[in-house]
Amino acid sequence: MPSTLISQLKETTAWLQQHTHCKPRVGIVLGTGLGALVQHIDVAAIHPYASIPHFPVSTVESHKGNLVFGTIGAVPVVAMQGRFHYYEGFTMQEVTYPVRVMKLLGIQHLLLSNAAGGINTGFKKGSLVVLNDHINMQTENPLRGLTDDFFGLRFPDMSKPYNERLSNLLVQEAALAGIQMHQGVYVSVNGPNLETRAEYRFLKTAGADMVGMSTVPEVIVANQLGLPCAAVSVITDECNPDNLQPVDIQEIIAVANQADTALSKIFAGVISRL
């Protein structure tokens, strides 16, 4: 399996290099309901996931499933319009496949976004939160079984999974735009169901400020690869177990869409400074 994965990664990278002249320095992963950043990109090429050799194909609504190459300001970028999730049935190595490809393409920084439920009662719908740490409660690890040095360190340190410089730039750019950027701890769970009242209480006791079903696998791989990364959650629903209201995916997407313009402006501003 590891040797097959290495061959696939090299084939995917070679295909993209043949079909795209852009050499990206920044990689971007856009989460549920978050895609307006593409409007800030001077697009050079768009490749649907289905057209890329060995690339997974997203099954989640609001994830368009395109790999977009271009520039923001003078900075060449590659952006994922939609990510992959463990709950879709992918392995963790498939979930994180694009991060490895983007690294092979030459990116030096990785920015990620996601939609998350707000466990911290100070976070209201539409709030933006830069991740300063995370709790991994997913049941498979993307590094499991990858013993070849090609993949990076087998036992990567995770004492600072989110790059302080990138995170600080996100906070600074938000302040310049007059947007409040909170900071907090993200917990990643398998999904796809949302959590019960008891689970929200448990996660809050564990130290989580927000909960979602993504991001952590990509961040683990980024750390294995020595790739500086930062991530922002859009709080799409308030998860107060003492006043828990039913929520559905359409509402989550709608709230994310409303915050998308502000988050995209922040991302674009940070990228132009890298």
Essential attributes:
274 residues, alpha/beta, 9 strands, 32% helix, globular
Overall pLDDT score:
94
Strand content: 15-25%
What is the general shape?
Answer: globular
Proportion in helices: 25-40%
- DSSP, total strands: 9
Residue stretches low in confidence (pLDDT < 50, at least 5 long) are none
In spatial order, strands of the major sheet run 5-8-7-6-9
Please give a structural write-up.
- The chain has 274 residues and is of the alpha/beta class.
- A hairpin with a 2-residue loop joins strand 3 and strand 4.
- The radius of gyration is 18 Å and the shape is globular.
- The termini are far apart.
Outline of this structure?
By secondary structure, this protein is α/β, with parallel strands linked by helices. Helix content is 32%, strand content 24%. It is built from 7 helices and 9 strands; from the N terminus they run H-E-E-E-E-H-H-E-E-H-E-H-E-H-E-H.
